[in-house]
């Protein structure tokens, strides 16, 4: 193999021209310190180099011939040296040939100049050292850029500037554990999206934009840089080289969120700092680190610009994010590839630690310490966290502590307490350093988009802060100390030589928690109010870990999560409470149980929204998804965030409550589903509490429900406990002969079963709305979400009829539901304002339902909060208000403008001018079409209906967009 590589290099040199050799020579010697390198003619280059305090001029004479044996012509060799040395006045000369110059020939050369011979083998060594990729291609400007990328960008990881030895950093740099990556793809046979294991080494085969999701610290940035490195080293089957451009968050901020400006800046002067110039000879691959930290408007503009660059210039891009469900899809119209980076598994952890500690005993000691102290249960297991722990274990051999806050406390001591013999500040109290970091962290966290200060702003900020405070420094030394803190602690660094940034978000989050915990308890509300922001949530977990016993703080967070109202917040709330309960493991278990139940409730709400996403078919990853699989995705997410021995008791208490609730009404599938989630989590090999799941499985009433039976079968197989075989055997007994409903659930897309009798998992809400038909339900729900920026409705909604024509069923429900409606519950039945709807509305028992406040369209039950309303008719449809009942046609579709109804063929003419009827048979397809529209303006007329509902529900004013 080595011989073949050497032959390839020799062949490459044989085929280059004088011009190519000239450019290669200038590039190599520029990296050796030469400057003012100028090509004087085809054979000669002149350049300057500093020698001590003087500058010397050297010459470079180029040859494409071999000079060996007796036939070598001395005049041919010496003539260009003499001519050019005299003409350009140099006395030291490098003689560079792409072929051999024998030692015998060299001895025969007798000239008055200082001669340095560089023949083929010497030249190959120089190229290997300074331009190793030259053997892949001969684009010298690209080679220089690639060298810049490999030496700067590819090695610019989060850990680079930690105050660790160079040896330790080099060791970390040499460790790359292949990430576990899964791609969301469609199953060609079933049309269901599946997570498919993806070989990360083949990522460059993806020719369309990609979103790469993973938790904070999962290694997204490292992986993106690795993609850039792979891109540079790619050789086979490449017609046109790719230029990898890594764009960080700070690059975007510095470029005012303009992608083109960021690209040009990141080209670092190559290609005249112009991406158009670069595209003349190469392709560009953008590696966008993250835009999660920016507000939605900034994210939208960045995504639109990226899409435009892809469409107009074929510039592909990969973008990192914390969650696949991040709302990016609303701003992306092109086909995307979706990938998810999994947390480290046990194999990856062992692999990393074994490489960090080649001595087996130290690696085993660390792995055992991690397990014994349950760190792997409390810490998001990522390359970053394992790196931090490994460094700590190597340098101080600390016993690994029990919480993430303790880990970072130790890092605080390690990094701020480390002295530097060259520093005049080595004896400054660690608390003073910590206070600067914590105060700055809170400032950045509370600034818009969390934008860091520039170096000058940073100095002004602390000069003002310490203006009237006693400090352990001479008055004129604060600025010097601040610069020392930036450059020497390993916690801050100057990004692009300008912005004072934390090395990693986790440091910012930790020090923000320190500031609030130690100095500004009145700012605790920031942690509560911003709990759904990932940075603030992590800070809240650090904050909780400082005490471990914070009942009031936990209650505030629980109340915050109870009011979550969108999918991102539901997922964030479940994750946040899961980690928070682990950090607060000394807090009252009943309070922790109550918080856990809140997470369980919003987990049900996220299930409902996921079924809507699957039904609307707006996300390819959920297209044709089946209800059981959506339920299992939700269960898996809950399991992942609560599978910790530290939450065992709250889980058991929660199960006892839910199981009691389920026993009271075994037809309540939602309670059964909740109990199953808690039970499979407790049954994990980590917590190993088997009694709860066995209680469910061996309870025949639980397995009698086909949906719960199916979920139990899948769940027991997915989350295998020690009792797996026995449980599977028992479940198998019940599955036999009962496959009809299970088959329907497994084969039928969620969109067909939603709002039917098989859609049995529903969250408990105070306000419950009932409509005539399923299409009414779908349209009303979608309209509300579009008018409220995808807020989950505060009410539940269900149809009494099928697709249409359920006015009679709605009337019957309103007359019979009274005994089942709780005193604090509100029920609203919505009739179409058409002939049949008016008939059923008016036919409600007048002794039981009475018009309220002189209204002609709202009735209330005399004893309960049960209302019947006719659809409010907006002003632009006022012609539909006709006294004669038989000529009333207003239904939910009339809230849309005529152009939409005409486009979808929904209009049927009537005998009355300017009045039309809706095609009942087209309502299903119309609902499907309308739920693919995200523009809130299309749904503006629904505001009249929603404001009527809000009044009856007695809720605060809802902020509708129109």
Any key phrases for this structure?
alpha/beta; Rossmann fold; 5 domains; 962 residues; six-stranded mixed beta sheet; NACHT domain-containing protein; P-loop_NTPase
Q: Can you describe what's shown?
A:
The protein has 41 helices and 24 strands. About 1% of the residues have low confidence. The chain is elongated, with a radius of gyration of 35 Å.
List the helices and strands and how they pair.
Layout: H1 2-14, H2 18-31, E1 35-41, E2 44-51, E3 54-63, H3 74-88, E4 92-97, H4 103-108, E5 114-118, H5 120-130, H6 140-153, H7 166-174, E6 181-186, E7 193-198, E8 210-213, H8 220-233, E9 242-247, H9 249-254, H10 259-266, H11 275-279, E10 283-288, H12 296-313, E11 316-321, E12 337-341, H13 346-356, H14 360-372, H15 375-378, H16 383-396, H17 404-417, H18 430-446, H19 455-465, H20 478-488, E13 492-495, E14 499-502, H21 505-518, H22 524-529, H23 534-547, H24 551-562, H25 567-583, H26 589-616, H27 627-642, H28 648-664, H29 669-682, H30 691-697, H31 700-704, H32 706-718, H33 724-735, H34 739-747, H35 750-753, E15 767-771, H36 774-787, E16 795-799, H37 807-816, E17 826-831, E18 833-834, H38 835-842, E19 849-851, E20 858-861, E21 866-870, E22 889-890, H39 898-903, E23 907-909, E24 916-918, H40 923-930, H41 943-953
Parallel strand pairs: 3-4, 4-5, 8-11, 8-12, 9-10, 10-11, 15-16, 15-17, 17-21
Antiparallel strand pairs: 1-2, 2-3, 6-7, 6-12, 13-14, 18-22, 19-20, 20-21, 23-24
Helix pairs in contact: 6-8, 13-14, 13-16, 16-17, 18-21, 19-20, 21-23, 23-25, 24-25, 24-26, 25-26, 25-27, 26-27, 26-28, 27-29, 27-32, 28-29, 29-30, 29-32, 32-33, 36-40, 37-38
Protein name: NACHT domain-containing protein
InterPro entries: P-loop_NTPase
